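forwarding from the other thread:

> can someone predict this with iron/sulfur cluster?

sure thing
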Amino acid sequence: MKSKYCLKKLSIIVDDLKIDRILKVSDEFLDLLRDAGYFEIGACIQCGNCTASCPSGRRTALRTREIMRKAILGQEEVLRDKELWLCTTCYTCYERCPRNIPITDIIVFLRNIAVERGNILAPHWNVCNVLYNTGHIVPIDNEKHNVLRESYGVSRVPPTVHAFPEALKEVQNLIESTGFDKKVKIGKYEQKIE
Ligand code: SF4
Ligand code: SF4
């Protein structure tokens, strides 16, 4: 019942905007959010609690309320916003939202759509690429780290792909089986993001 009410409210907002010709909105984009089950977004009252409580926003240009506003209005430009990638998925906004909107999940969902449309920041793409090619997000490629490990009484290299390089193929098989390589454009789909 609550979902139907939220959806109706969302439709009214969008219809009003179309009539006033204030902004270009996309029904297709709103349909994606609706199909994914994020009806609650229509209950956002733009109170700004999410922005105020966001630890990342204190140090970056991330303005969570603005991202939510663009999403509610069906403004696809949000998918090209660099700020979308500044969220650390800490869930603080979700905990503080008076409307119980799953903000963090919505941001992750928006990122997924953004990636499908070729929008990803170079540093994030680099991490994906390094994982595919080494089996590690942060590979150990400095001898001093091996020495440090030894000094702590553990093996020079961890029992990961570092110690078992033949396991890299398995890591790549796992990545490919999920379609992640195609989506992010790494491996045989490699398309470097500048
Ligand atoms: S805290 Fe919730 S209701 Fe308030 S602006 Fe953010 S998403 Fe909207
Ligand atoms: S989940 Fe993301 S947007 Fe929400 S408070 Fe944490 S960093 Fe900010």
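The chain has a mean pLDDT of 88. thats all i got for now
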